[in-house]
Amino acid sequence: MPQPRAWQRMLSGRRLDLLDPSPLDIEIEDIAHGLAFVARWNGQTRGDHAYSVAEHSLLVEQIFGEMHPKTDTKWRLAALLHDAPEYVIGDMISPVKAAVGPDYGQLDDRLTAAIHIRFGLPAVIPALIKKQIKKADIISAWLEATQIAGFSENEADKLFGRPDAAIVRGLEIRLRPPLQVRRDFTARHAVLLEKTP
Known about the structure:
The chain is mainly alpha-helical. The chain has 10 helices and 2 strands; from the N terminus they run E-E-H-H-H-H-H-H-H-H-H-H. It has a two-stranded antiparallel sheet. Helix 2 (53-67) packs parallel to helix 10 and helix 7 (127-147) packs antiparallel against helix 8.
């Protein structure tokens, strides 16, 4: 019996092996396209467009930069790419990840390492940087929950913690067409990559 196919053909023409992903098979255009069409919150958000993982990633990078303005540009790039594996595995909400078990985490780790290497980052980023990106990610989740996912602030506070008012002041979730988000994600990646030593 033949082995099941474990690779995905990308629009760039690359074939990404999910069991052994090669950095050579990763293109930013594929990532940006995939993330722009993957809905966060399982699509359960208000608005005329889904809130995409690409839009979320742009917001997380912005929040991370506000919180750590003197950090190396490479870590801002890591923040932008923090959910990049979801371009092939989709955005699973936390309860689904828990139900799938450790195999999900291993797949995510393999893809993350290949993506990081492709763009000049260490395969595994330092624990402190990862923790800082996660904090920006949680702040983004609080904003998304309260602005577009129907959560009250009290509910969001219990799930994510109350963010510092100075960090979230003026941040507004934007719902935009996927192609516009894809373009902005690719452009931001290019700026950060150019500034990364």
